[in-house]
Structures are given as structure tokens and as C-alpha cells.
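Review box. Two proteins, two foldings.
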Amino acid sequence: MQGRLVWLHLLVLCAMTALLVLVQTWQLYGEARERIGERAITASRIVSRLPSVVQGAQAGVQNAALNLQVNEIRAQAEADFIVVGNRAGIRLAHPRPDRLGQPMEGGDNIEPFAGREIISVARGSLGVSVRGKVPIWNAAGQVVGVVSTGYLMPAAWHLVVGALISLAPWFVLALGLGTAGAMLVARRLRADILNLEPEQIAALVGQQRAVLAALREGVIAVDGQSRVTLVNDRAAEMLGPQTVRPQAVTPQSTPAPLADFWPELALLTRPVQQPLSRQQNLEVMLKGQPILVNIEPLGQSGAGGGGFVAGFRDRAEAVALADELTHARGFVDVLRAQTHEYQNRLHVLSGLLQLGRPEEALRVLNAEIEQGAQFRQLLRDVQVPRLVALLAGKRERAQELGIDFQVAEGSNLSALWERHADTLVTAVGNLTENAFEALAGQPGTVTVLIGEDPEGAQVEVEDSGPGVAAGVAARLFTRGASSKGEGRGYGLAGVLGRVQALGGQIKHTRRGGHTVFQVSLPAPGNTALVSAASEPTVSESSAPRPPA
């Protein structure tokens, strides 16, 4: 990469040097021609004022003495020729005697015969030359002839070559300095572009655009002045159509201020004295909706930082994924508990049969059948199959933990609530699991009550545990609030979001030494969406209990 850059730079330097030489040559040629022209016209003026020249031109005939005198002056002036012509343009003096008496060549005598001095470049009998022509005036003020002093063009080029030779060291010095500069620039550029070739850079840019377009998470890049420099398609959809898409980002494009699109994030990441640090799962509002944001700082440039890249997604989508994972884990736990319990029961029945006590084995089997039938009888009026399956699984889980799990007699729920089965499963599943954990492995009772009336549905989960800890009760439904350590405290926040999305509410209280969580949902026809950011109704607990 460095060699290619150096050779490219050298090629550019050579081209620029050649151009400079050409310009300088043309300029020197013009100056040389001007200087030679001034010498020529000065010599012509001197010759034109000589009495012998004036008399010879006025006579208009050849004169050997005149020709000799003019050639002596030519030698002193170091001119290539001095020609004297009469009014008819016939040569009276010339360096070559055989051309005396012949017409002057070049076609540039019109101006001198009109009484004006000129400097011209024309082709004569001796070749192309720079000429200085002056009219010859007699005593009466009449033009009686012309004097033409000339220097052939090789003389002009001789001056140019001499000047270029004197400038050659400077050209070589400039080329050497340019080469050294090219190597330094190439080395610096090589470090800046991570030793990548141009075609590799182009391929990476194409891959970057494809990756950004494929992401279902919004991604934006923000520079150190809080200006949006890059967004992917998903981010453009969430922020608005006026944002800059990646294909439109060019060196000439003007980055837009982040505050124009997302004031809340701009306020959160505004430049401060300390550099911006990496942050994960920040909850930031965007157009009134909660958004989860991950911030990755870019290269730092002083205390103000060097900008950042932010990836973000709708919190509702994240919560939905978390709920699905929670359901999957819950079903796994249910299956594991059922497997464990049925293995125990099979072992008991097998042992009784091996001991020759079939009557007792039959009694155990009938007892299990009766308990199952009684439990199913309690759920006969709950017509939401997924909720019934969840409660059956929780019963098995409770038996494994040594907890007395009950469904209150008279529980009922019509098939109309099947449309909200996900919310009901999430709420009942989280609340019952929290109740199990509240007992902390100690024997106790957990009771679930499900009811329905014209106004909606009510779910109560009651446990005999110690209650919610006083230090957590006020923020129990806040995301991350938990006394169980890092990574906990998300279940109740998710339940709250789903319940409030249907226009319902959730609260907790202490009743008769038991902790009761109550969920109320309006009838499906009366459901009204409310903001997930509103605060729940929370009753103070009188005794401490680990939260969910």
C-alpha cells in the first residue's frame, strides 16, 4: 500500500514538475524575446540616425561603404543581421553581399514605412528571427527607408536553456522534497486506514451498508458535536423520514443535530467534562415511547469525547422476547417437575407391588387420580386452556417444593379472555413463581383466585410468606428493583407493562398475615391503552419479604 501511494505521489510530482518547467520555459522564452527585441530596436535606432545611412536610403542605390559600415556596427551589437532598405524595400545593406539589391522579406515593413517602430517575429532570408524595425527620416521629415536589426530564434532559445540550467537544481530539490513528503504522507495514511488497500476499503463500506440495512435494531452514529452522521434504515423508521440514510452520507453532506431528532438522547449524551462511557440497556423516551439504548463511545478526543454509536430497540419488543423466554423456561420447569413427581410416584407404586401389597398401591393410585380430578374440577370454569395448563404445571412445581398450592373454589374465566391469554399467563406465572420464592424453601400456602364480572377479570395470588421488604415496596414495580441481587427485578415490571397496556392495574397488600397481589383487567370490550410509564398503585407492606 505504501509503495503504491509513493509511486502515485511521485507520478503526480513529476507531472507537476514537468508542467512547471513548461510554464517556466514559456515565460523565459517570452522574456528572452522581449529582451532581444529591445536590443534589436535600440541598434536599429542608432543605425537609422547615422548621416551616411540617411543619405544612402534617400539616394536609394547600393553603396559598398554604407554596407561595410553597417556590418561593423552589426558585429559590435552581436546581432545576426542589420539590413538597411530604401523606400521601395530594396536592400542597401545586408550581411551577405549576394542578397544586396533584393527585396526585404518578412512582410513587416508596413508599420515602419508608416513612421512607427515595431518589434516583430518573422521569417526572413536567414530564418525566423526577432526583429526591431525603425523608419529612416530625412531632414524634411519624410520616411526614406527602414533599418531592421534581428536576432535569429536559436539565440532566444540559447538564453532560455541557460536560464533553465540555472533553475535545474531547484527543480531537483523540489522533486526530492516532494518524494520525502510523499513517503511521510503514505506512512501516515497507511496507519490511518488500517493498512487497507482501496479495494478493501470499498468492500468494507459495501459490507457495512448491507449489515446496517439487515439489522432490525436501530443504529446511529453521532460525532463529538452531537451531530448525527449515520443511521440505518431501522433507525430512520423510528426517528423519522427526515434523518440521513447511510447511502446519502458523503463528505459534502451536512450532519444533522441529534437534538432535532431525539432530544432525550441528546440531553443524556451532551458533552460534559468526563468522556462518555459505555452504557447498556438505558431506557430513553422517543416520541413518548420507552426505548432501550446501548451506547458505545468512539475514539476519545479530549474531555469532550469523540462521539458515539447508539443501538436501540423498542422496549415493548424486548419485553415480548423476555416474556417468551420466561414462558419457555416456565414450561421447562413444569415438565421437569412433572417428570420428577411422576417418577417418584412410579417408584412408590413399583415398590408396593414388589412388596406384594397391591391393595395399598391401588389406594395410592386412586388418591392421585382423585386429587387430579379435584384440581381439574376447580378449573372447570376457567376456559383459557393456556392458563389452565400453567396452573397444572405450577401445582406440580409446588409439590416438588413442598408447598401447598391451591386454586380458590369458584374460580372462573370465560373463553372471551383467550385473546389476552399471553397477559394472563405472564401475570399468573410471574406472581406464583414470586410467591414460591417468597416462602424461601419453607412450608407454606400459595392460593390463586381467578374471577370475572361485567367490569372485567380479577386475579389474586396470595402467599403465606413474610411480605415485601420495606426498602423496596415503594419502587416494587420499577424495572430492576429487587433485593435478590444483580439481574433481578424485571418480572413485575414486565407484568405491569402488559397489564397497563390493557388498561388494567396491579397492586399488592397484606391481608391476614398473608401477602396478596391483585391484578384487575377491564373487560375486552372496554380495554383502553394507557402509558406504560405510569406508576402502579402500591400498598405498603407491614412485614419484609423478598421481591420478585
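Next protein.
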Amino acid sequence: MEFITKSSESIEDTPLKVLRQTRSSESDLVDSWLSETEEVESAKHGVVDLKISPNGLFGEVEVNLSQDLEHHTFSAYEAIFNALHNFPDYQLLRIWNYVPQILAASENPDFKNNYEAFNSGRFKAFKKYFGPQFNTSMMPSASAVGSHSNCLRIEFLAVKSEITFLENKEQTAARNYSEKYGQRPPLFSRGAIYKNLQQTLLISSGTASVVGEDSIYSDLYDQLNQSILNLRILGSQFNLKRYAIDYGFALEDAVLLRTYYKNKEDEDFLRKYLKKLVSPDCKLSFMQADICRDELLVEIEAIFVKKGEFEQNGKEKYTLNDVGKIRTESFELHIAEHCNLRCRDCCNISPLNPQKFMSVAEIEEICKFLKDTIQPDLFKIAGGEPTLHPKIDEIIRVIKHYEIASQIRVVSNGLLVHRMSEYFWQEIDQLTISNYKSAPVKQRSLDLIKEKAKQYGFVTNVKYVEQFNEIFVKEPFSDPTEIQRIYDDCWMRHRCHIIRNGRFYKCTRAAYMDDYLGILKIDPQLEHSTYSEADGLDITAPDFKEKALHYLNNKKPLASCRYCLGVSGSLRDNVQLSKKEIKEMVE
């Protein structure tokens, strides 16, 4: 199947047959699943309508309620399983449930509301289908929201590809919910990863402000941020490591974000806030609906595409846009290369770097260069620790003046945010805080961040970091296959573009590789250059754009990949190095 959104491709541009599509109005496409061939079989099995392609099967069933909801839910799911019995090569991947009056009191006195009755009917159908061991089976990804019709509607996707079903390490698996939330638990996994043609997709379930099994927060702002945090955790490298997956999905990888909201008056805020969170290529859609718990105000489902795999049919990821610039996802500047922490496995070897601040003049020259050549969706002010820079306000002013990106994000450890000026809070669009286990941010600083975010409307992402990936190796890799695998799984080549010492890099680690090798007393010299020279482009080259397009689209690993684990390194506890340990490393 081919998955597209209106942001990525027009459905009119393809001859392939539609399996399923969603529109927010008659003309506004939200998303569409297309067959990989023009051959699509339509079939009807009882009350279930199917569209079948060689690798994907979509089905739907709609039942008018005439008896109790538990009975109708059981019958609808039984019909789905009976239909799928005719297609043994297909496995349920995703289910969308639209439950009439989901929070209304149930006609059956055994259930508090219709959602509990729905869960009981679904539970019984799954138990019958999977047999005695069904509770240990991984359930499909799913969502269930309210509808105002008198019809129970269920849509589902089944695929032939191998599926990895996911749970969120911070949430109780739904099938293990206690009776506090009903006699029968809801049966779904938090998400699923599978290979779709040349795409690796992560499809999340409906995600709300739930930690463990309990709803948290009562206001929309906090619920929305917790829901987003849950999506981040689900796709994070640290969560996926539990499934022997070496890569991760960031919110920037989302190509679809569908938001269900309870109260009509919240829609305007949600549209403005979520737009700041995602790539311009991410399709946002909104639907007013009751959520499955009365206290929940918002629920989000998402589809993510693994970095570098969204381009299909031989298309290049990097091209010149309408104004002749190279469109990229992000660009970052390390305005301070040193840090006030000494984290082991620091990505940019900050504990080993001498104190170094970029000058405002240097940053302005880089901005002038970017203004004419590269248009990132996101401009990241990073380090080291950027809040150490005494002129950070002036730097923000320069970056905003050149209008290089629509969003400016500061990436910090959060320890010095109490020193930031009102201008800083007012002008940033996003703030990412790495809240390290070995050096946690004080609660008053976290409260300050939340207060300022509400006041000025910037987006926050406070990540509690318990572990780091091991990054650099002392003995270089020699197996080309292993080096290629590490490179292919590494998202940094798309998300960590940087200019350092007059050279443009697709990866920050390549920019620091000569420094790292020098610290290890390893000669960085290659046949005709050093590692960092070989892996970066001179920004003064007259044909820079042409070279940069080839460089960014090139699937060949960098020279620095021989000494780097990418994002595939083993996880180690986040610890602070002692001054003695650092001294021993650099001497």
C-alpha cells in the first residue's frame, strides 16, 4: 500500500486505487491508503465490506443499534474475525471504533456507560477468536471515540507484513487495566510498527493524558502536553530498544496527527499549538468527539514515518524549493561548545571541549549564508549548553531577523533557565529540556518553564533522561555492511545539520570527529584530508548548492561513521564524569 497525506502528495496524481481515505470535508483530504497496484478486489462478508490489495486489506462494518451495545459490539467483531478467516495471510494492524454516545449511561445495569459495554463486547469477541491464550497476544493498535449517531461503526486495516506491537513504558498495557475502569479491559496496543513498501510506519493508538492506567491533569493545556509526551515516549529510541529496534521516531517524523477534542471552544487553541509542534509536512486534522473517559478533553492518534524512507518512487529527499533553497528539516548552531555538566556519552563531547562561544558576528554570517541557500523547518539553538552564552538574547534577535525558519527551538539542560530574560521567553517558539537523572532540574525551574510557556505560548518538551547511547568507539569498524546499517538507521543525518569551522555537515558528530580522535591520540588524517574535512562541505564553494544536494541525498556512510555507533549504541546510565576522569581522557 501507499500511504499519503494532502501535505505529501495529491491523491489525483496517482492512478492507484483508494483502499481507505479520510476527509475533513468534501474537498479536504486528511489521509489516504492506496493499493500498490490497480487491482483492488471489493468483497462483502456478511455485514463487513472489504477492499483487498496484495499487501493491505481495509474493512468496515456499521451496525444500527436495536439491542444493547455489548451484544452489537460482540456481533460486529465476530463478523470482522469471520471475514478475516478467509484471508489467513493478513493480520489486524489498526482498528478505528466510533461508539454511539460513548459516555452515556448504559441500558445494561452491569455497565456504568456505553464504553464499558463496548469493551465487554469487544473482549468477548477477542476471547472467542484468540482462544484461551488471547490475553497474552498483542492486540492491534486502536482508538475508540464517541459519535452522535445511532450506529456503531468499526473500520480496520490488516496487512501481510510483519508487525511489532508496542506498549508505552510509562503506561499500563490497556489489557491489564484494573476493574476500576470496567469489568472488562479495553483491548489494544499503544502502537504498531510495520514495513509498508519502502516505508517503516509507526501507527499509534488514540493517545490521551494517561500515566500508568490513570488519567492525570484536568485542564486542556496539561492534558495536551501529556498526550504529546506519551506519543514521544512511545516512539522514542529508549522505548523501542525494548523491542530490539535501534532507531526511534520523533514528533518531527509525524506525517499525520489526528486530534479528537471534547469541547468546541478548544479547537482554535489546539490548531495553533499543534502547528508549532510538527513538521510543515505533517497533516493536522481535528474532530470534535467525546473521549472514552469523562475527564479527558483531548486524544491524539499519529502516523510516523522512519527518517529517510518517506520518499517513494525514486524521489530525492532533498531538492531546491520554489525560491531556490534546499529544504531541510532542521539546522542547529552550537553557540556554546562547552557545558556546565559532564555527561558520559555526550553526543558532542562537550565535557571534553574547552570553553568556546560563537560570536554574534560569526552567527550573523552563518545566517546570511543560510538565508540564500538553506531553508530549514526548524532552527535549533544548542550546544554544549546554550544558556551559558552571555549574548543569547542578541543571538535570538539575529536569527529571527533573517527569518530562516518558522520555528526557533532552544535545546538545554534547564539548569540555568532561571537566568533567562523576559525577551528570551517571549521570542522562542520551542524549548526542549533534557532533564538528566544525574543532574535533575529543580522543581522551581520546571514550574517557571511551565508558567512562561502558558504566558507566551511556546511549546515545551521536558525529557527525563535516564540513559545515553554509547556513541563513539576507539577501534574503527571495518565491516562495510555494519557501517552501512548504522548509517541507515541513524536519524541524525536528517535532523542534525550544522555549520562548524566554515563547513556544513549533515551530522554533528562528524563536525567534532577530528577533535574526538585527537583526544584519543588517534591521527585523524586520511589519505587527502581529515575525517571532519572529508565529511563536511566548504560553505564558500561557488557550487555549494549542487554539492550539498548530492551530499545530503547520498546514501553512502560518512568517513566518521567508522568511529560512531549512530543511534544503535548500547544504553548506559546517564552519569556525570569526575574532573579526574576527564583529565585522564584529555591528557
